[in-house]
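Input sequence (206 aa), recorded before submission:
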Amino acid sequence: MRKAIAGAITLTTLTVAIQSIAQTPPPAPTMPPSLPAEHVVNVMTNEGSGAFSVQWRVADVRIKTTYQIEPRAMPTDFDDSQWERIEGKDLGVRRSGGHNAFMWFRGLLTMPARISDFDLSKSAVAVLNVLVDDYAEVWINGQMPRRSGYPSPATIQGLNMPNRVVLGTELKAGDRFQLAVFAINGPMSDPVGSIWFRQAMVEFYR
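Predicted structure, token format:
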């Protein structure tokens, strides 16, 4: 009897723990500064992407079932080694087959000690500013910060509207950020054209 009770307690505890993990909310969004940036790097150039030692990779998204897509490339450790490699200047190339189309763009940004005359030996705030034609969701290190009912810059902002996502508020040289941008052709009920980046930059503030 005691063993049965102990087993039931263990099972209940395990179930609660699993439910707790499954229901762990995503991190809350941090609002980006509204003042002009102290320094801006355009990563849609090879020089700008090279400043962060980033290798961009891109892949089409397939609708696997009515309710699921493939690949699900959000996790930091997702293996994108077989994806097409592109340079920073090629982020502006129009891609996809049009219609209801989705694409992933991934890249690992590493903060250098200095970018031009901006010294990262002192902590700084960094904001990723991307504008994808037509919509985007932005994952940073396996997370898409968001809260229902509140402004969430990493989520869809509107038709051809930028996503300004805070990478860090105490940034320093050597910090790394795995980016996964889920790009969407739109409007989703009546899509036209293709998928491409209108802008992609990293803004620095102090």
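Checked by second reader. The CA atoms of residues 111 and 173 lie 5 Å apart.
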